[in-house]
């Protein structure tokens, strides 16, 4: 598999072969991607929805009227579900939606998404980005030189936490910062282009190289 490589200012250099230790033909597991995305979506749910049943609503301890003699139907409490302001029958309660995912499935999903992006020619390699100061204009200029500013959402994967790069990206709405040490499947999958710095690519190969070997 191949990808376009760019200099640190966004100028095209050449097409390069992606590392075979990480990228290989037919190395996409749709099942692993599905399981990982489903788990991450579930873990984002707060689960703080809640309603009160008749026993949790204040008041209603006295019968609204006498049992007999009024000509009306019997009522035991004004907090019954069929009364306005009454309790909710079988309403939602707070719950935990979190879902666990095994380490092997997560690793397989990350590699599968990377290979899927590579097969769609959506991976670009960028020389290590070093900013001397916070500059949104500089980052935007690099993306413009790469021809990506009109290609939809972009994810930039770098090594570690670079505060100057992250701060310079903050005002670019279509650009997502990814720390290679904390890769999420959602942020990898939901973008139109993936830009990986050279150091981040080396770390990806070092961390995930065994997954491709097991798949082959």
Compact description:
The protein is an alpha/beta fold. It contains 6 helices and 6 strands, in the order ββααβαβαβαβα.
User: What is the CATH third-level topology name of the largest domain?
Assistant: Ribosomal Protein L4, Chain: A
CATH superfamily of the largest domain: Ribosomal protein L4/L1
Task: Please indicate the count of domains.
Answer: 2
Structural class: alpha/beta
**Envelope shape:** elongated
Q: How are strands sequenced across the largest beta sheet?
A: 2-1-3-6-4-5
The arrangement of helices and strands along the chain is: EEHHEHEHEHEH
Rg on CA atoms, Å = 27 Å
Count of helical regions: 6
Main sheet attributes: strand count, strand direction, barrel closure:
6 strands, mixed
Question: Which CATH first-tier class of the largest domain would you pick?
Answer: Alpha Beta
CATH architectural label of the largest domain: 3-Layer(aba) Sandwich
Helix content: 25-40%
Q: How many strand units?
A: 6
How far apart lie the N and C ends? 15 Å
